[in-house]
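Milestone M4 deliverable, item 7.
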Amino acid sequence: MPQIRILLADDHTLFRQGIKTLLAAEADFEVVGEASNGGEAIERAAELRPDVVVMDVSMPGMSCFEATRQIRKARPEIKVLFLTMYDDEDYLIESMEVGASGYVLKDSPSPQLSAAVRDVHRGGSYLSPRMLSQLVDDFRSRVKTQTRTPRFATLTNREREVLKMLAEGNSVKEIAGDLNLSVKTIEAHKFNLMRKLDIHNKAQLVQYAIQKKIIQLPAMA
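Output delivered:
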């Protein structure tokens, strides 16, 4: 059975050793290296070329988000899975922005971590059930207030930026390159803005952008 090669990045030695023991007990896992900070994680990822990096959110020195960005830029095939104590939506969003594929809370049962490693290795995504529940609750709250909130006002700055670039004719791939983000992240922004605006195709999107003066029609000669 091919093994999933894992790099652990966490500044707490005892915790890191515990996770290593836990993962090494799985027949299809091999822990190939460890790192205690973001800079070391980048170096070890370049040297060892793991399949998955299990990354702590809070480490001294370079931020885990910047470390993830650099790892993914140098080796897009390496998947990054955040393992953290913070059930914070802002951290979750930022982790997705820099190209992470999963977000697991440290108080999760061990089978969830194993499942998350396998899911992201296969090219999927994984969220701890508690984080997923928070996102669903947040979505329900937004739906309840949608009739009282102008739709355009619900867009984030990034979603407005993506809306403008899409309306100007840029492809998702081109936008990802210009903003230094992954195609998956831009696809997520596109899905969210179209859902919020109740727009279902490119023509409607362009029409909406013109109505809101986000873009302007070229002047007639």
